[in-house]
Amino acid sequence: MRPRISHIALIAALTAGGALAQGAEETVDLGTITLTALREAAETLRTGVSVTVVEAEDLRDAGDIRLSDYLSRLPGVSMVSSGPMGTRSSIRIRGAEPQYVAVYIDGIRVDDATEISPQFDFGALSTSDIARVEVLRGSQSSLWGGSAVGGVISITSLAPTEDGLSQTVAAEAGSYNSSALRYSLAFRDERVEAGFSLSHLKSDGFSAYDTLPRSPGLEDDGFEAVRLSFSARYRLSDALSLGAAVFAQRSENDFDAYMADSTVNSQERRDFGARLFAEYEAGNTSHLFDVTRYRISREIDEGGWLSSYLGVRQGVSYQGTTEINPALTLVYGAAWQEEEVTNPALPGGASTRTAGVFGQALWSPTEDLDLSLSLRQDDHSEFGGQPSGRLALAWQAADGLTLRGAASTGYRSPSHYELYGDPTWTIAANTGLNPEESRSLEIGGDYDFGGENRLSLTLFDIRIEDAITYQSCPYDPLTWACLPGTTNVYENEAGTSKRRGLELSGEARLSDSIGLSFAYTYVDASKPDGTRLLRVPRHSLAVTLSAALTADLSARIGVQHLAGRPAEFGTALADYTLVNAGLGYDLSESVAVSLRVENVFDEEYQSVPGYGTPGRAVYLGLTGRF
Asked: Which candidate, 14, 116, 180, places its Cα nearest to that of 422?
């Protein structure tokens, strides 16, 4: 039977980084707790869906600067990057493109509405102040609304992990004249939890444009970012808590034009997010109210051609959770959201609004069986109503064995650019666009052999209909102008695109001091006409070997292999293998030093034709906790 966990108590325990006591003797390992899979705290094995939970310790041990690099090694996840830190970095889940992945930071939706197809650019997001990441795979619109077609990524900033006042200072420097600094301050007592983090990242980078083999002497494309995050929670009583979360980031980066080096292209980006919330528990019911706002601005200079983009998303939501009895819990709520966009195509701005209601029943008819059914109805200001749903099952079939399955639907709303067009490029408005719709199926199993030895297998199938695609006009070959009476436009494409495959992951304890983990994903992704979707590898494998060499010295070696990528516009993309390695040494209980090497064998590869990737790079870091 699925145990219900007090949301207020859970958040306190999550920030402590320990286990949550449920009774006099029972505890729950918080590494197995998810908040996104059911919008209610639950053990991952009892949700029936595929979710991966990443803790701050996992990120710290891996040592990646960009979060997207770490995510790319998780089951079902792949990443495409167009150069060094700061340039575009896109995440795909189960072969579903970035516009089908809903991304949240501290409960704030951060997809960029100014994009042609709204998506979150991970290129400027580092791992420096992240406490937790949850990656939920499969269509999840019934709980998380539009765009959650391939899945959801929920990111939580650092928060207090111990009572009293604590501080952390971290510094790292290395190749490409890179440096990273972070300071965090946290305080916690019986009523107050507050955390503050300030980080600075700078790198000269390498050329975003490059060839294979690499071309020496190209101009470097640098990056610099300052990020501030703050969170606080105050318990007015055992039943009522008030809280807030704020983050702000300012970043600047250089970039190159497609298939050409450039010394004049640059971007300034500003991100700001804020959330106010109240949690109240009364008997068997908990209530969560929140207000969110996200603002992103981008100023792009392409050799004197200036473009400005501004997107604002604000929302209000309510969620209630009622435990009817120990076997049945209801989760329900309502949300309202408004998106406003101003860009070169819409200099006067445009806005859309979405209102929705959802409900979910969590039923455990036996101690070993958990079922969930969720339904949602959204109403969009342009295209009207859109339903979605999900049914999931988890069965503890035997000691250590969980069998699970889920069937769900999802959708993506047309973007402002797709709806209203762009006169500059003779793209006509098409306010008659329908939302894209998805159907997602998965079955899988998890087996715990004991002794930190685990294996997980999932088969999945995602199908998308009414995909919104760009349709170009017939044009005059001399002037490149559309022929009279024709225009470019975005339209719903007939047919169904398919993304199907499997995820296999596991962990093994080879000895008391040596551990092995791996994640393999196979994806067959095709368009309605049967041709393969671009930038989706057929095979991806990540293997990590970690060892505690002494009480104070640890080592880590990771191998990542991608194979079977389709050719892109006539350019073949070769398979490649990357090897990363790292050492960590505790100088004392509060001070640690780290050494890591990326791309140990200096592999030359590209994830996008014509865009560079890093060679061998070495970084030395120092962390102090007080």
From this structure: 116
Query: Whose structure tokens read 């039943």?
Result: 239
Average pLDDT over residues 276-295: 98
Q: Would the pLDDT of 5 be above 80?
A: no
Q: CB of 223 within 8 A of CB of 194?
A: no
End-to-end CA distance of the chain: 41
Backbone φ and ψ for 601, nearest 5 degrees, come out as -100, 15
CA distances from 280 to 7, 8, 286, 356 (A): 9, 9, 6, 22
Residues 55 and 134: their CA atoms lie apart, in Å, by 9
Q: Which residues of 196-225 are buried (b: 16+ CB within 10 A; e: fewer)?
A: bbbbebbbebbbbbbeeeeeeebbbbbbbb
| Cβ contact 308:341 at 8 Å | no
Section 403-419 average pLDDT:
97
- How confident is residue 264, by pLDDT bands cut at 50, 70 and 90? confident
Banded pLDDT at 64 (limits 50, 70, 90): very high
Give this prediction's pTM: 0.95
Exposure on the CB side of residue 247, measured as CA atoms within 13 A? 25
Closest residue by Cα to residue 456 from 535, 403, 494: 403
Q: How long a stretch of residues is the chain?
A: 626
Where in the chain are the domains?
Answer: 7-625
The whole-angstrom distance between residue 345's C-alpha and the CA centroid of its chain comes to: 28
Reply yes or no on whether the pLDDT at 614 is more than 90: yes
Cα–Cα distance between 374 and 407 in angstroms, integer?
A: 11
Is 28's pLDDT higher than 90? no
Structure tokens at 104: 């949240």
To the question of domain 7-625 being in CATH 3.40.50.150, the answer is: no
Measure Cα distances from 463 to 402, 418, 497 in Å. 26, 21, 6
In degrees, rounded to 5, the angle at the alpha carbon of residue 136 between the alpha carbons of residues 413 and 448 is: 160
The pLDDT, as a whole number, for residue 4 is: 55
Residues contacting 30, CB < 8 A, separation 6+:
13, 14, 17, 18, 19, 20
Rounded-to-integer distance, Cα 360 and Cα 391, Å: 10
Is it the case that residue 245 has pLDDT exceeding 60?
Answer: yes
Where do the DSSP E strands lie in 381-495? 384-398, 401-412, 427-428, 436-448, 454-465, 468-471, 488-492
Cis peptide bond prior to 474, omega within 30° of 0: no
- C-alpha closest to that of 391 among 578, 139, 97, 66: 139
What is the spatial distance between Cα 525 and Cα 535, in angstroms, rounded to a whole number? 10
d(CA 289, CA 279) in angstroms, rounded, equals: 7
Beta strands 101-105 and 151-157, pairing class: parallel
Residue 49's closest CA among 65, 60, 34, 64? 34
Strand partners, 376: 358, 388
d(CA 399, CA 45): 13
Count CB neighbours of 140 within 10 A: 30
Which residues have C-beta within 8 Å of that of residue 283, sequence separation ≥ 6?
none
